[in-house]
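Table S4 entry, Transmembrane protein.
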Amino acid sequence: MGDMITGIAYAIAADILFGSFGVPIKSPAVVAAKVDPIIFQFYKASACFLTSFLTLFYVDFKFTYWGIVGAAIWVVNGTLAIVAVQKAGLGVAQALWSGLSIFVSFVWGTVVFGEPVKHIGLCVVALLLMAIGMAGIGLAAAGRFKEPLGQDLEQTRRLIMDEDGRGKYEVRNNNFRIGILCAVYVGFANGSFMMPLKYANKEVKGAEYLMSFGIGAMSMTLLLLGGYYVVNKMIGRPFPSFQTQVKQTIPTNPKLASDLSG
């Protein structure tokens, strides 16, 4: 019983932290600077790598290749999660991928690893209710960037054309769809995020896994960064700035503050 309470407490703490990690992505300074998702992921991975050394204060260093596997999942997920938040908004994107992650994690736990479930019927009901909630979020968000209809259409087109000749509502619709697709991928893949840890338990226990994960996170991100540099070089596009001069500011514009929510 004690282990269960401890596990639930850690799960709640993790939920709060995971639910908040996307907040800096929508901060005014980052939004204004248009920080590239892969650059943002580089800073995330750097923080992960550096903080993983803290575990050496209370556990011995042990290496497992499962940490590299877990980190590879995390790096791809992390990058696409940033894209999802930037294009679909924090509330919609994170709600969508969190719900999908629970579905996938449930399958991994009950079907693949055979973890016992006391009330399978209640679990099914809970998953169905969550599915309804996710559908509600999707339907509510779908109307945010609807194309104007009727006699106002041409007037709206004239008012909001961008420099490429496309309506801004069209651009935002496309961005929103891309964000939703990224969030769906993150949801399914994120549900498998803890799978390597389950297999790694034969070699390492608990916090011993984190050092391998940190090394993997930094290594995979550097590979991603290198590949991104090569691609940009090949297509003749400048490599994105690392934005070392970005400073946090408090939004005073009500519209800007509203945009942060999505």
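The mean pLDDT is 81.
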